[in-house]
Specification:
six-stranded antiparallel β-sheet, alpha+beta, five-stranded antiparallel β-sheet, 2 domains
Length: 242
């Protein structure tokens, strides 16, 4: 396993704007500077986002093509209320310019953390503790689960649709159908900051052998199904962080 990349506990609070007074002052100053710099900010200097002109079922983004506002740490500076998305095909964070149609992409090594849609993400470069890319951080306690979504442009002789690749153009009937195949990977981060692959709910519950029965009951009481893995992880981490 590669070296462990750690994040201070206060970083989540910083990104979610739950800030003490002095941090709030810093945030206000940063926002004023950000507003003055506008699209000339260093955040908007980079490669133009990849364009996917070929028609394919689904999309290359983490969820969909909609940008969501969030806070992003880029080269040591925090930028607030920025329209963001993730290109899950090539693992790049996408930043939409406020005053134009252009979208800039940044590599994970340049973006250690950002929020999108109220969720916290971390970027790992080629020398990170996890494979290069972006990860959603599930859980706010001493132990967490890191989730990565990858979307690979694939081909099939049959039309491919379903969970959760998205749309089909009824007027488009090629000989070979293109679609974005989704791969999800999970990693458990323990109290010491060490990562290990996490394949299913059973593996997660095995980390708490004395509480497995209790946790299973809690999952059932919450009306969660095993395939709702993200929600199960969030509940288990919350209950075990006491």
């Amino acid at each position: 396993m590669k070296r462990t990349q750690r994040f201070p506990g206060g970083l989540l609070a910083l990104l979610l704007c739950c800030l003490p007074l002095n941090a709030q002052t810093h945030m206000e100053e940063a926002q004023d500077f950000q507003k003055t710099a506008g699209d000339r900010s260093i955040l908007y200097r980079g490669e133009q986002a990849a364009s996917y002109l070929s028609l394919a079922n689904g999309n290359p983004y983490w969820n969909n093509a909609e940008f969501q506002n969030g806070n992003i740490v880029f080269e040591g500076n925090t930028y607030y209320d920025v329209p963001l998305n993730i290109d899950a095909n090539i693992q790049r964070v996408l930043v939409h310019l406020a005053n134009g149609p252009f979208v800039i992409s940044h590599a994970p090594a340049l973006v250690p953390t950002f929020t999108m849609g109220g969720r916290l993400f971390a970027g790992f470069g080629p020398d990170g503790a996890l494979p290069e890319g972006f990860y959603e951080i599930i859980g706010e306690g001493r132990e967490q689960v890191y989730k990565q979504v990858r979307k690979l442009l694939s081909s099939s002789l049959m039309d491919v649709n379903g969970d959760p690749i998205g749309y089909v153009d009824a007027n488009y009937r090629p000989d070979i159908f293109k679609y974005f195949a989704i791969e999800r990977s999970y990693y458990f981060r323990d109290k010491d900051g060490n990562f290990s692959p996490l394949k299913n709910l059973r593996q997660l519950l095995n980390r708490y052998p004395d509480r497995k029965k209790e946790l299973r009951k809690a999952i059932k009481a919450a009306g969660l199904r095993t395939k709702e893995f993200d929600a199960c992880c969030e509940l288990v981490l919350k209950l075990t962080d006491r």
